[in-house]
Amino acid sequence: MTSEEDFARALRASAELAPAPAGDLLALNAELRGRNRVLRRRAAGASAVALVATAGCALALLPWGTPADVSAAGDTPSAAAPTPPDGFMSHTLRSLLPKEGKVDAQKISSTDRSMTPSASAEYDDGHGPAQVGVTAERVVTPLTDADPALQCPDTLEQPTTTCHVTARPDGSRLVTAAKAPRWNGDTRTWTATFSTPDGRMIRAFEIVTGFADDPDREQPPLPMDGLQKIATSDDWKPAFDQLPPGRVFTEPVTTEQVAAALREALPAGAVFDPGKDTQNVPGRIHGTVTLNGRTSNVVATVAHNWQYGLPGDERVRFQQMGSTANIHQTVNGIDAFLKKIPLAGPGHTPETQGTDWFAAAQFPGRTVVTVKLWTPGTGNQHATGPGALDEDQVVALVAAANWSHA
Amino acid sequence: MDRTTTTGNHPEPLEFRDFAAARGRHLVRTAYLLTGGDAHLAEDLAQEALGKLYGSWRRVSRMANPAGYARTVLVNTFISHRRRRSSGEHVTDTFVESAVPVADPALRLTLLHALGELPQQDRAVLVLRYWEDLGVEETAAVLRLSPTAVRSRASRALSRLRDRLGSEYAELARI
């Protein structure tokens, strides 16, 4: 090569070998990531939201997947829908925070025109700051115990210090929960989730970030009744004006049916034990699976009417859900993917940190199956070694033909 | 090469999806060069960079040069990323579909391989200077380096490529 121009020409020629993804699909996938980033930033640590963000949108794969996940699939509010003014969410949040504390003006943000309007702020009561925020969503109606959003977090998946579910006389539900740190220095999260019979849900949260050997404060700046006051305020109503109506609940398969299908789909010799805990909801089962002397925790879901009633093509939404997967496979005509989700912890490098395995498969007729597998480690941490099933077995499990008949 | 035209503030904000669909391919190409020909990582980085823009799109869309900002975010994402695929996904002799006839794939792959062996910042300097066609000052601004550092890195990187490629270096000029 004789000159810089020659090098530039060679570089341009080499760039032609780059992949040429469809622009629209690339844009949709980027938007999906962006929305997830926003959710993580605004509601990081809030149990259900964090589950969606880190566990591969497990809730989204249920038939009652929240509007947050719908928006991730690319659906946006109609242009004709009334919209709250700019800054509505952050303004409302600020107005509901106790005046004796201090809000950092540089660290308050608002997402007003979204399928999940949200706001977050750094609030300091004089004893250290916490991230305080809210998200607004629509949930399916009528409110039902089958909706994970109205239940305490599954303690198998999410270590939880306390959780209370209150059904109010007017039909509304209030769920208050405190997430336990997984390790020394992990964040502590408190949430108050209020749902009304007409399908409005406000989740208020507080997050305190700690560092190893620098203990978090045990209590957040806002006590739980303060968080409840924010979640139950009528001031949030305008945020729902732009959101489409919530979906109507459709009966999912029973827990027993999911358990039976899981047992049938497991590889020969594997044993599933649902344990004695009853913290399961229809369409979902959790327990342990043991094979060749190794035992891992497992959560499986099956939905025959996956995201029924939502606009757009569910196959495209499924592809988007798997856009960041590590493995894509077609097993007997069934599209499946597997994500390896690393869980950071103190002293862990990317090579040694614990891993969650999340797999999903889409069957003909809107049936979607998910399987999450992980091996518990010390305390609340996840183990780094191999689990009861390897990657191929997890993919084969989630794509087993018998799920269609669950 | 795609060019970014700076025309002052847009009269109306761009839609995110329109922007991402229009610029995505170019960002993937830039990422492909930055990664030394890792197709999967290139798509991943381009998506990640666009995803980062999404969160502040209202502000970004009103910038004079959203495409330039997207390029900066991509380069920073590349430099700060930790390789998640430990097995590595490197250039192979299996080619993705391309509208351009691939007459000399081996040479191009050789160049990509060699690029991939350079330090990340040196690669970024070369890609910004010779693919994005940025000046020394602009490249320095994107990478937060001094113009002198950009010049020395570019010179050193080209020299390394020349040493690494030997006689093939001259052949590349005839691509």
Question: What can you tell me about this protein's structure?
Answer:
- The complex is a heterodimer of chains A (406) and B (175).
- In chain A, strand 2 and strand 3 form a beta hairpin.
- Chain A has two domains: 190 residues, no CATH class; 151 residues, Protein Transport Mog1p, Chain A (3-Layer(aba) Sandwich).
- In chain A, 22% of the residues lie in helices and 28% in strands.
- With 406 residues, chain A is α+β, with helices and mostly antiparallel strands.
- In chain A, the strands form two sheets. Chain A has a seven-stranded antiparallel beta sheet, with helices on both faces.
- About 9% of the residues of chain A have low confidence.
- Chain B folds into two domains: 90 residues, Rna Polymerase Sigma Factor, Chain: A; 73 residues, Winged helix-like DNA-binding domain superfamily/Winged helix DNA-binding domain (Arc Repressor Mutant, subunit A).
- In chain B, helix 1 crosses helix 4 and helix 7 crosses helix 8.
- With 175 residues, chain B is mainly alpha-helical.
Furnish the topology, listing elements before pairings.
The complex is a heterodimer of chains A (406) and B (175).
Chain A: H1 4-15, H2 23-43, H3 47-54, H4 67-72, H5 88-96, E1 102-111, E2 118-124, E3 129-138, E4 160-167, E5 173-179, E6 188-195, E7 200-208, H6 224-231, H7 255-265, E8 271-273, E9 284-291, E10 294-303, H8 314-321, E11 327-331, E12 334-343, E13 354-363, E14 367-374, H9 391-398
Antiparallel strand pairs in A: 1-2, 2-3, 3-7, 4-5, 5-6, 6-7, 8-9, 9-10, 10-14, 11-12, 12-13, 13-14
Chain B: H1 16-34, H2 39-55, H3 57-60, H4 66-80, H5 105-116, H6 120-131, H7 136-143, H8 147-165, H9 167-172
